[in-house]
């Protein structure tokens, strides 16, 4: 089994603004782009994404697009989801379905998401995003805004928000 550092080097991963490490692996540039209210997007993009023991949290963020997460290697990742209706749900993406872990986790666009390495050294996953990912479609969570919207989940929001966030929307 490769270490987290070996995965970063082997896959050419870079630090991600939401936490962890990533690299885009595919964009459907062989197809016409999809028109969205926020501009044209690829029909599909995908990334490798790695959480490590020194960067174990994918901080609160919202994507407009639907995302499928696929576990590849390493430890499980726990996902916290805040739905538009105020509901909180959790799911564990990991290698052991016999323990209730999912190999694939769909997260619809418009659902706030935070994740953390459940145990161990690292977890390697992939994400497929449709319409394709664009930084203009991602909003990083700010504690004050999220707590105003989801007051029942204040402790959870504080636990997984980035320590400092000068802007809500990330631009490329």
Automatic annotation (TrEMBL):
Pfam families: Cupin_5 (PF06172). CDD domains: cupin_YML079wp. Coiled coil: none annotated. Residues 6-140 form the DUF985 domain. PANTHER family: DUF985 DOMAIN-CONTAINING PROTEIN, RMLC-LIKE JELLY ROLL FOLD PROTEIN. This is Cupin domain-containing protein. It comes from Streptomyces caledonius. The lineage of its organism: Bacteria, Bacillati, Actinomycetota, Actinomycetes, Kitasatosporales.
